[in-house]
Design a protein that fits this description.
Elements: H1 3-17, H2 25-32, H3 40-50, H4 74-87, H5 91-108, H6 114-131, H7 137-153, H8 159-162, H9 164-172, H10 176-193, H11 203-233, H12 242-260, H13 286-290, H14 292-304, H15 307-321, H16 330-352, H17 359-375, H18 378-382, H19 387-401, H20 409-424, H21 432-459, H22 462-469, H23 471-485, H24 489-516, H25 523-546, H26 554-584, H27 592-608, H28 620-629, H29 634-651, H30 656-672, H31 674-678, H32 681-688, H33 697-700, H34 705-716, H35 723-730, H36 734-741, H37 752-770, H38 780-788, H39 792-801, H40 807-818, H41 834-853, H42 863-883, H43 890-894, H44 899-912, H45 916-921, H46 923-938, H47 940-943, H48 949-964, H49 968-991, H50 998-1005, H51 1008-1023, H52 1029-1041, H53 1043-1055, H54 1062-1073, H55 1082-1097
Helix pairs in contact: 1-2, 2-3, 4-5, 5-7, 6-7, 7-10, 9-10, 10-11, 10-12, 11-12, 11-14, 12-15, 14-15, 15-17, 16-17, 16-19, 17-20, 19-21, 20-23, 21-23, 21-24, 21-25, 23-25, 24-25, 24-26, 25-26, 25-27, 26-28, 27-29, 27-30, 29-30, 29-32, 30-34, 34-37, 35-38, 37-40, 39-40, 39-41, 40-42, 41-42, ...
Length: 1103
């Protein structure tokens, strides 16, 4: 960057800060990070002109570099950023330069020479050493992260990168300001080494760097962090200001956490999990990890550091607590465990003295408990002298956690996970006292949980309402508390029943008032509170039933579960009449109690309904239920459950959460107990009366219509020889189809009422046809096809009329499912024309939608919903048709039938109407396109007699984009496509036909497309280290198609390397092609693939 330009940029920042103008580059950087500055888009455009990243895409014709500027490449752009850092005092400019440097490194690091990489590394160190203290914190952090990234990427390029610890240690020996910068540099380095960066796409290469760093330097860095912590705890550092001290504290803890969180063995657990895995610290860490002095140092920091850092220090303690036990000898293990028990009791005592609860600290302590139990056997914990005091302290702490004022859902889940793990390992016979104490505490904890959930309803707590509405989290909490309750089930069950009886009596009193009409002014408020309490208790009862283990006492536990089920059935009998009466009074409010009842039956079905109960007929649970309600077997219980589901769908149509769970439960019943379900009386009635006339939810909750009818279809076709029943089932749709057939013009199909009918009808039919599978005994698909085919003209007219309305997406999704040969279900007789008929209709569908949709104008903000959603469905339809193997496509050309050519021509027009940037921006569209392309290139593309050059170019450039992207599935499909095309072109070239195949003609006229793909695949394999088997498959046919360009590219690549490395790289490429013959026989292709993989495994680095 010349001095004049730099001066202009500097002046631009000063001017914009004075509010005079905003057209200079640094003014733009100010605007980029300040909402009060100029337009962000203008800022980005201005900065891109002066600082191009040259991250050129194959879909772009030029890079984002301005042709009027002299910036000729990434290296010069990098130098410009360095000059901005050196000469600008603006933090906005410094941040922009830092982030821009990161973008350049991520995109082009492999293109820089080793001296250039070292120079960049040294620049960052020197800059932070000389100016780091005066930088804003966010700038300092960005530069430290940049240093970590550069060090990681260049780790094996030169010794300088592996000397980072020694260079950074110099900061630690200087002033406090430099020490702060040094600690931050180390923290960023450790974090970057542990992170799978987008540059190193290959996990193997990432782990190679991480493991080498772990073995050489990580232990030393951890020791340095402990030394720094020791100085801080001992107040041995004299700070000039509180800000300086705060930064030192924060960065030191950050470094400790990063070291302890390092992925030592490449199996980093999911942070959202329950932290069940132990941490495999290397043996070299043993002196630091097994020494209780390390834990004591951290504990002292925890008690003395500012409150906002307490949770981070506590996390460090919990990470060391989770160390693998094999690091410790028996004596060390006992001492460490005793220390942890004492420390956790001390932390609980600390909590009791807090006036305000620190939620983050409380949460980390909950995680610590889980980690403690995950790595230690209960028997080992029991043998510690502190055990009985400790377990009592933890039990009291847990009960306090349940109090409404102290309840934090995420933390409670960890605390309950801890107890669930404790009660899952029953102490051995020598520990009778410990077992009895655990049993007593399990009852106390259950009691505390139940009591707190009743109290929380009275307190009208927001978090409790949110928990009830969050099905996944609620289920986790309930399952965990049920595991605890099951340890001593009888007293736990009795206290749950006692709580139920108390609240149910209040509910019964309200019921009596309602029935007699004696309703007080506070009736609805009281009813709301009582229903809330019943909801929680019913949820807990369901969880207790569902938590039953096969190892638990069968007879006793069945009796207890039967008592819970009996209470629920009594409640249902009363509740049904109560709800009817309330609705007569105009109360149509939604109730969480219905969700709780549904949950109970779901848990009951899981344990007591299914094939596993056939050998247990007549056992206690159904004996008790039979005596009380006449439900003496699982079929009758299942019938009652289905009745409840039907009532939900009939009377609670507007309660979306209940409808969603009801339909999902119904679907699960059909998956797991379908033969029992099919025989129930209610299911038989449901198959005859299933539409919106009988179940209003179908109109109120349209999203669940597909699942509902898929379930009914599975239920319908469970029995063999039921064609008449299937026709009767489908006949309920006939009135709608007949009404549609009477519409005499396209405008009539656009009426709002008709669109609603179309949307509902084809959601239903899509669900129905999606569940049809192959069966020799029952030709289910053929039954549906014979019924629906006569109505295809209606479908086509509806699609043509509504091409620009969302209902078109519903129609297309139905047809995509209709044309899908799922599980080979589209099997017709050899003389049947049905396959050809289906594809003829497919062609008409694509043409009817495509010819109108392509010409429609769509606002950019609605591109997905109004345009690409339909395109995605069309691509899926064509893919399903081409891959279905139920159509003999040669018939169309033989009899001059234009169906195939029309369908393909429409699809080409749709493809060319999608800019490549949009194609790659919408994941569903991208996946549908490349899946279709994979299928299309295997057959139909190679048989075409005419294809336009823009289509060929689009296919090649889109494939290059997919190979460049990060989605492996799309990349694989693109590679398959290129392999199919390139192999065909090679064979055609070898055949030397006259005239050549149209595909060969098109490619011969555009050789740059072969060069593009060849370059892109070579870069992906050799430079980006994308070590993927699928990438090597299209490479050989591309090389054989244009060996001259391959040799040119390799030569250029080798000449760009440092001179000492050139012979090594030349030899590697010679070995790559050694023994490869000029053919595409399987043996030759396999040999080439192996040699490509060997090239990568050999560890040769290409810059």
């Amino acid at each position: 960057m010349d001095p004049t330009t730099l001066k202009t940029i500097e002046e631009g920042m000063k001017i914009v800060e004075c509010g005079l103008q905003a057209t200079h580059p640094l003014a733009a950087s100010y605007a980029l990070y300040n909402p009060l500055g100029m337009d962000r888009a203008l800022a980005e455009q201005t900065l891109a002109q002066h600082f191009p990243t040259f991250s050129e895409s194959t879909l772009a014709q030029v890079s984002n570099a301005s042709p009027t500027l002299a910036t000729r490449g990434p290296l010069e752009s990098l130098g410009n950023c360095q000059q901005v850092l050196e000469h600008s005092a603006s933090p906005y400019a410094q941040l922009f330069a830092s982030l821009h440097l990161k973008a350049l490194i991520i995109s082009h690091f492999q293109l820089f020479s080793i001296p250039q990489k070292i120079e960049l590394r040294n620049f960052l160190l020197n800059y932070l050493g000389t100016r780091g203290i005066g930088l804003q914190l966010y700038v300092m952090t960005a530069l430290a992260e940049l240093f970590g990234l550069v060090t990681k990427l260049g780790w094996f390029d030169a010794d300088e990168f592996q000397n980072s610890l020694a260079d950074t240690a110099k900061f630690l020996q200087a002033s406090n300001e430099h020490r702060i910068v040094g600690i931050l540099l180390l923290a960023s380095l450790v974090q970057e080494m542990n992170r799978l960066t987008s540059v190193l796409k290959n996990m193997t290469r990432h782990r190679k760097v991480a493991v080498n760093f772990r073995d050489l330097q990580l232990a030393q860095i951890f020791q340095l962090s402990l030394d720094a912590l020791r100085d801080l705890v001992g107040k041995q550092i004299a700070f000039k200001s509180a800000v300086e001290e705060s930064r030192m504290l924060e960065f030191t803890i950050q470094l400790l956490r990063n070291c302890l969180q390092f992925d030592f063995i490449g199996t980093n657990p999911d942070e959202s999990g329950e932290d069940i895995g132990s941490i495999s610290f290397p043996n070299s860490w043993r002196p630091m990890i097994t020494d209780n002095a390390t834990l004591q140092l951290l504990y002292d920091a925890y008690t003395s550091f500012p409150e906002h850092l307490a949770h981070q220090v506590l996390e460090c303690i919990s990470l060391i607590v989770a160390a693998r036990r094999s690091l410790f000898n028996d004596d060390e293990k006992g001492k460490s465990l005793s220390w942890v028990l004492e420390a956790t009791m001390g932390i609980v005592q600390r909590f009791s003295h807090m006036s305000n609860l620190n939620e983050k600290e409380y949460h980390e302590f909950s995680r610590l408990l889980v980690r403690l139990k995950s790595v230690n056997q209960l028997s080992d914990i029991i043998e510690r002298p502190q055990y009985f005091e400790w377990v009592e302290t933890m039990a009291r702490f847990t009960i306090q956690c349940f109090e409404p004022s102290k309840w934090i859902t995420n933390s409670v889940i960890y605390v309950l996970t801890f107890w669930s793990k404790v009660v899952a390992t029953v102490p051995a016979p020598p520990h009778v006292r410990a077992y009895e104490q655990l049993c007593d505490f399990s009852v106390e904890i259950t009691k505390g949980f139940v009591s707190s959930r009743i109290l929380v309803v009275d307190s009208d707590d927001d978090e409790s309402r949110e928990l009830i509405e969050d099905e996944a989290t609620l289920t986790s909490v309930l399952e965990l508390i049920a595991n605890v309750a099951r340890l001593k089930y009888k007293p736990s069950c009795e206290l749950v029943v006692s709580a139920f009886d108390l609240v149910a009596s209040q509910y019964n009193a309200l019921y009596s008032q309602c029935m007699t009409g004696q309703i007080s002014s506070y009736f609805r408020t009281k009813l709301s509170y009582v229903e809330g309490k019943l909801t929680w208790i019913v949820y807990i009862m369901g969880a207790c039933v569902g938590a039953r283990s096969p190892t638990q006492n069968t007879e006793e536990h069945e009796i207890l579960d039967g008592s819970l089920a009996a209470k629920i059935l009594h409640l249902m009998n009363m509740d049904g009449n109560f709800v009817v009466r309330l609705r007569e009074m105009g109360d149509t409010s939604n109730r969480s109690l219905d969700l709780a009842l549904l949950y109970f039956f779901y848990q009951f079905r899981k344990i007591y309904i299914g094939p596993h109960m056939e050998v247990r007929q007549g056992r206690e649970i159904y004996v008790r239920l039979g005596e009380a309600f006449g439900i003496d077997d699982q079929s009758k219980m299942l019938n009652l459950i289905v009745q409840k589901l039907c009532n939900n769908m009939k009377f609670c149509a507007n309660f979306e959460p209940l409808i969603a769970r009801t339909v999902d439960f119904f679907s699960e019943l059909a998956n797991g107990s379908i033969r029992y379900l099919r025989k129930t009386e209610t299911a038989q009635i449901l198959l005859k009366y299933h539409n919106a006339q009988y179940f209003p939810f179908l109109d109120a909750n349209r999203k669940k219509r597909v699942t509902y009818y898929a379930t009914l279809c599975r239920l319908l076709f469970t029995e063999d020889n039921n064609e008449a029943e299937a026709i009767e089932f489908l006949s309920l749709f006939n009135p709608i189809l007949e009404e549609l057939s009477l519409l005499n013009n396209l405008d009539a199909f656009r009426e709002p009422r008709i669109r609603v009918l179309l949307d509902g009808l084809f959601r239903d039919l899509r669900g129905f046809v999606s569940a049809i599978e192959l069966s020799e005994a029952k030709p289910s698909y053929l039954i549906f096809f014979n019924w629906f085919y006569p109505f295809m003209p209606i479908f086509l007219r509806a699609l043509e009329a509504n091409y620009d309305h969302p209902v078109a997406n519903t129609l297309l999704k139905f047809y995509a499912e209709f044309a899908l040969n799922r599980a080979q279900r589209l099997v017709f007789d050899i003389s049947s024309p049905n396959g050809i008929l289906i594809f003829r209709e497919t062609s008409k569908v694509l043409q009817a939608y495509g010819k109108m949709a392509i010409s429609a104008r769509v606002d950019d903000s609605r591109k997905w919903s109004d345009k690409y959603k339909g395109y995605t469905a069309c691509l899926t339809i064509l893919k399903n048709s081409l891959a279905g193997n139920y159509v003999h496509f040669g018939v169309f050309d033989l009899y001059n039938d234009p169906a195939l050519s029309t369908a393909l021509e429409t699809m080409f027009r749709i493809m060319l109407n999608i800019p490549l940037s949009d194609l790659m921006a919408f994941p569903k569209l991208t996946a549908a396109y490349f899946t279709m392309l994979d299928v299309f290139s295997k057959g139909q593309l190679l048989k075409m007699t005419e294809i336009s050059p823009p289509v060929i170019e689009y296919i090649f450039r889109s494939a290059a984009e997919a190979i460049k992207g990060n989605d492996k599935s799309n990349s694989t499909s693109a590679c398959n496509t290129i392999e199919n095309i390139a192999s065909f072109l090679f064979q055609q070239n070898a055949a030397n036909k006259n005239p050549p195949h149209v595909l060969l003609q098109r490619i011969s006229a555009q050789p740059q497309l072969i060069h593009l793909l060849l370059t892109r695949i070579l870069e992906a394999i050799f430079i980006e280290d994308a070590n993927d088997w699928s990438l090597s498959r299209p490479l050989l046919p591309l090389v054989l198609l244009d060996k001259a360009y391959f040799d040119f590219y390799v030569g250029k690549l080798i000449s760009s390397q440092l001179e000492p490395r050139q012979p090594v790289l030349l030899n590697a490429f010679q070995e790559l092609m050694e023994g490869i013959q000029f053919n595409l026989l399987p043996s030759n292709k396999n040999k080439f693939t192996q040699q490509v993989l060997h090239f990568r495994v050999s560890g040769i680095s290409i810059s």
